[in-house]
Write a structure and sequence with these properties.
With 278 residues, the protein is an alpha/beta fold. It has 12 helices and 11 strands. The protein has one domain (3-272). Strands 5-4-3-6-2-1-9-10-11 form a 9-stranded mixed β-sheet.
């Protein structure tokens, strides 16, 4: 990564012309404050954590949504919800360097497909909008909930204030209320409505036109995450942006070329000037 490109990316993140899209890799340096174990963020570590450290069958180990679907069918959807809330809502984790960096530059629109709360904590000193993805929930045509952060608490909202920062957590969060997109069935519902336009608020649909994106900590080897990402960044500028991927596979190279994403063969920690944890 050249100094010129780094400056261009940071300037774009600050002024909102480039939108950060955060994947599991941004949590690579986050550990349990009590025992030092890494936070389960990527698919493999989430499956192991959900199954008490034991591997599941190779078919289920392929992707977390598949494993979560298996648990849901055997023990109910609430079992998966309780696991995610215990992991991300009830456990104390150390702060990640990427999130401290984001707090310092505070981009006006951030997409975070992780289910932890560090992004929300980064903006706790500022009023902001929060969009939380939901799935398979009756009583609404939409696949999101809206909240407004003020005076140290989230409040339910029906609208987005476009003058305030927008935090988009499509896969859910435990805060203020636990809602997650996790199992195969969740993703089928969410992606179907995402393609139909019901998983993104109208204000964001207008805001995202012509934006560029910086994929940070996101590998592009799994179809589920690729489908979510490609629909969320719909109406992007051309070229659509950049993807920070260290040692990308041929599959990732082809996919980035297809979407108009320039590959930067580096990890996010080089961008922020911190030690790499890849």
């Amino acid at each position: 990564m050249t100094p010129e490109l780094r400056d261009k990316l940071i300037d774009g993140l600050k002024n909102g012309s480039i939108v950060p899209y955060l994947g599991p890799g941004v949590l690579a340096d986050v550990t349990n404050a009590a025992n030092g174990t890494p936070i389960p963020a990527d698919s493999n570590s989430l499956i192991l954590a959900m199954n008490d450290g034991r591997p599941m069958s190779p078919k289920l180990m392929y992707e977390f949504p598949r494993a979560a679907m298996n648990v849901e069918l055997k023990r109910g959807r609430s079992t998966v919800t309780r696991f995610l809330t215990r992991t991300y809502g009830d456990t104390l984790w150390t702060r990640g360097a990427v999130h401290d960096w984001i707090r310092a530059i505070h981009p006006p629109y951030v997409i975070d497909i992780n289910r932890d709360t560090q992004l929300q904590d980064s903006y706790a000193r500022l009023k902001h909008n929060l969009i939380v993805g939901i799935a398979r929930l009756g009583g609404t045509d939409f696949r999101y909930k809206l909240y407004y952060w003020d005076t140290g608490a989230y409040h339910k909202s029906d609208v987005i204030d476009p003058d305030l920062t927008i935090l988009f957590k499509p896969m859910g969060t435990p805060k203020p209320f636990p809602d997650y997109v996790a199992s195969d069935a969740d993703y089928v519902d969410y992606i179907t409505e995402l393609m139909g336009g019901f998983s993104i608020p109208p204000v964001v649909k207008a805001l995202r036109k012509g934006k560029q994106y910086l994929l940070m900590g996101l590998r592009l080897n799994r179809d589920t995450e690729r489908m979510v990402m490609s629909d969320i960044i719909y109406d992007a500028a051309q070229p659509a942006g950049w993807a920070l991927i260290q040692e990308p596979t041929d599959k990732e190279r082809r996919y980035c070329k297809k979407l108009g994403l320039e590959l930067i063969e580096s990890d996010v920690f080089e961008l922020i000037g911190a030690e790499s944890f890849a």
